[in-house]
Amino acid sequence: MNPTRRKPVVTWALIAVSALVFAYELSLSSEAATVFLARYGVVPAVLTGGGLGVLRSDGGSLGALITPITSLFLHGGGLHLLGNMWFLHVFGDNVEDELGRPQFLLFYLGAGLGAALFQVAVDPSSLVPMVGASGAISGVLAGYVVLHPRAPVLTLVPIPLALFVEVPAFIFIFVWFALQLVYGLLSAGGIGQGGVAWWAHVGGFLVGLLAITLHRKAVAARRA
What we know:
single chain; globular
């Protein structure tokens, strides 16, 4: 990881909140956990089906508009949580350092929102709840590759032997993004094998790429 000028307080806080919410999930019965994830995860058919101003007791979907944000702090299992938080830990601190704490929080939430809306647009009739921080973290990856394209990233290469090698960030993230596109196409628009919302990853990455590009242009204009 690249050194930073300030402590990544927001990155740590996002990891802590996600861990606490997951601990709460574990405290629920399986039935209650299913209801919890369906209520606060993104269900595309709920967001596109109307009734967003009608009480749920009356058959509406009141409150569903907050799910693109609440879903970022929910996870479907321990490995899901650990994988996402590891990526956020590795890449988030440098992006936070560049943007500043309040701006990084908005960047993270904005990428997550964009990811959710992208997945909803691709598969609007899905009834499968989408949960997890990976859409927002995809935006963080986009920010990192623009800021530190040649930074070394320790990567597991499984072929021909399982070896850890250092590769430049732009190669690691380019390969990662290409895989999201391929798997997204193979999933025919919906959530693919293993319950992964590939198009949310693509959407979060594109939103992050746009946001970090606009940020750098604004910084350059101020310095001119």
